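User: quick one, fold this
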Amino acid sequence: MNMIFTRRLSVLLSCTMLAVVSNGLSAQAQIIDTDSMEGSAKASPGNARPAIPGTTATSASYLTNVESSTPRSAKQSANMAAPRMAQVDSNNQPSPGLETAPTPTTPTSPGLETAPTPTTPTSPGLETAPTPTTPTSPGLETAPTPTTPTSPGLETAPTPTAPEQTAPAAPAVNFIDVSADYWAEPFIQALAARNAIAGFPDGAFRPEQPVTRAEFAAMIQRALNPSPVQQLSPEGFTDVPANYWAAPAIRAAYEAGFMAGYPDNTFMPNQEIPKVQAITALANGLGLTASGDPGQILTNYYADAGQVPSYAFNQVAAATEANLVVNYPDVRTLNPQVPLTRAEAVAHLYQALVRLGQVQPLPATVAAAGYIVGPPPQVTQVPPTTPEPTPEETTPPETLDVEPGRATRGGSSYIGVGANFGLSGASDLGDGTNFAVFSKIGLLRSFSVRPAVVVGDNTTVLVPITYDFSFRTAETLEQTFSIAPYVGAGVGIATGGDEDDDNGGDDDDGSDVGLLLTAGVDVPLTSQFTATAAVNANFRDDTDVGIWVGVGYNFPGF
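Assistant:
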């Protein structure tokens, strides 16, 4: 019996030893499994559960079950967790095998704070992380900025409607040849500010330059912008080609009732427009009529009323009553046949705008208002804020600005040829019929110099300075036309010296200078040509008298 007990005890001890050995082997296998998994994680981060080399799937599963079921002490867990955390920190990447580890929430790991892991639903520690909604995110702080009241774009949005930007003061236009004391300066400045007129590329306005019919049509279109009341035929005017620079303006002026052509269906666009035609055009376009007898109205207001053509009586009288007419320098002298200057054209257009109610009348204290003809306008004037000007300021004298080649009261400057018929004397001026070259060079509104040469055996040079009168109406053979008289004086020089003296010998003493007197008339033919006739007397030792007749070509100036 003792022997049987001893054998059973031996078997029991053997089983106990086997159990102890088995537990030790299981722990060792767990450590090996852990090390293998860590090494596999380094080599293959994408594999969740790498197999231990040399084992089957079944053994790997067994080892996993053993790992999860085998109890560990707190000390063993801490010892095993420490190297894992160190590994994560050193590689700056989480190990796939540690999905349930709380390491991503450790605030000392900057790599996990910026990683996109918060969107992974399998990480409960990071699912509740408040990082996406934290106020420290610059993107979330600036997102609502466009709707905040501090946006500069919303604060400055109503700026374009500010009154100071929508109603700027009209800038002054300074023309180099229009001084502040020029008689028409208020008219010119007012229309230039409205962009109704323009100057030349050199900065000049050329206020004394005559205006052609085409230019006046263009000024009407630009300043008044009239509406059509009739239609021009498709053929138009025979002397206005479709590509002519002023063709649209001429059409607009005709269709609005301001200007008309001639009976032969011509417009004569390059002809200088007389003042009476310009006034007639404005009166027609504005539909003005005289309130009484036109002849009596003209006589009441103009000293030269007899020069107004009969066809323009009603229009000029109506324009006078409507305060359209502007006369400088004498308000009672109309000069109806004198070519209209640019300054006069602007003054009359300004008065037309006053009639239309588009601009205010000039205050009575402005000097230019003193040249407006007619009854006082029925418009309440704003009381002046400046001191009452002196009489000298309200009626300034004509400026003595010499402009060689300008038009005068008697028409345009010209150069021409003709024939001289001698009446008495021994020089070519007074002897026989000779070829003559003559000219007119305007200097001031009323003065010209008219150099001429009579060519023959004893060529005679004439240099008179003339006073040019305004146009007058003449009637011949039931035709009415305009003439511009002139008178003057200067010097006459007879050259050549082949004259016989009183003793029968030759007088070869060269040039002979004498006093020259001249008187004549200019007759405008077209805008480009002027006919002239004059009588000249050169007082030398012998008085030479001759008459020449010719035609000159007009030019606007030098």
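User: anything notable?
Assistant: Residues 186 and 368 are 7 Å apart (CA to CA).
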